[in-house]
Structures are given as C-alpha cells and as structure tokens.
Amino acid sequence: MKCPFCGGTENRVVDSRSSKDDMAVRRRRECTHCSQRFTTYEYIEDTPLKLIKRDGRREPFDRQKLLRAISIACGKRPVATADIERLVESIENDLKQLDRGEIPSTHVGEAVMNRLKELDEVAYIRFASVYRSFRDTKEFFNELEKLLSQQKTRHAPEFQE
C-alpha cells in the first residue's frame, strides 16, 4: 500500500475493524517512512457493476467518482464526511442488491438526489443542477420551487376540527 503523503511503500496496520454491514474491512495504517497515518478499505471483489451512460456507453461503477461528486455537492455545507460515506455505501449496496450486472446511470443519479434531498437541500440543488444539466436560470428556479413546495407540504400545520 502506497503512502498518500510520501509515496513510501512500507507501512504497518495500526487498527483493523469491520464496517457496520460487514461488507468491508477498515484499516488504519502508519507509514514507516514518514509516520503519517491513513485509512484504507478492503472490499470483497465481486462481479463489477457497470453503468449504462445516457449515450449508451458502458463503464464500470466507480465508488470514488460517486464519492467525489457527492462531496463536491456538499462542499462548505454542514455535512459530515461520515454521512457522505454512509450515503455512498447505501447507494452502492442498493445497486448490488438489484442483482443486475448493468444499471442505467440515471438510476444512480436519482438515488443520489433522493438521498441528498433528505441530507442537505442545498447539496441536493447543487447536484441536481449538474445532473439535470439546467440550461438556464428558469430551470434552476423551477427545481427550487418544487423543493419549496415539498417543504411547505411537509411542514404545514395540521388542523383538527
């Protein structure tokens, strides 16, 4: 395992534990060259998921790419890194449970948006603006209006007679 700080290849495992769903092993490592610590995850290698892109291309599902996209949407927002990790893990597990080798990328995008809407609405709008490729401010405003109307519905006081 290459150290992300100095590039050294010698390190030792300081701590090792299973993830919550026992689908991965989390390892804390310490570089023997620079003494920096870093975390690695070990996953069971299974049949790789492939995404069917909008233009018909197929590409392997990339967990890190999904993590980066969600992290960018959550940038400078009060969203913990652990929450983002759980969100990505949840989406990945849902995709694997579909038990299909190939999944439309739109399925992944909609899953991200549904979860982001509950996690952080600003992150949701940021992600939606890229995912849905808003062409102008009107489309952006329409999405905001939908979000606001859903908020009103959720927070409307219930009247009893």
Using brief descriptors, characterize the structure shown.
single chain; 161 residues; alpha+beta; 2 domains; three-stranded antiparallel beta sheet; three-stranded mixed beta sheet; 45% helix; globular
Characterize the structure shown.
With 161 residues, the chain is an alpha+beta fold. It has a three-stranded antiparallel β-sheet, with no helix packed on it. The protein has a three-stranded mixed β-sheet with strand order 5-4-6. It has helices at residues 63-73, 81-97, 105-119, 121-131, 137-155, and strands at residues 11-18, 24-31, 37-43, 50-52, 58-60, 102-104. It has two domains: 1-44; 46-151.
What's the topology here?
Layout lengths: L10 E8 L5 E8 L5 E7 L6 E3 L5 E3 L2 H11 L7 H17 L4 E3 H15 L1 H11 L5 H19 L6
Parallel strand pairs: 4-6
Antiparallel strand pairs: 1-2, 2-3, 4-5
Q: What's a concise summary of this model?
A:
The protein contains 5 helices and 6 strands. With 161 residues, the chain is of the alpha+beta class.
Weakly predicted, low-confidence segments: none
Order the strands across the largest sheet as they lie in space: 1-2-3
**Average pLDDT, all residues:** 87
Radius of gyration: 20 Å
Give the helix proportion (percent range): 40-55%
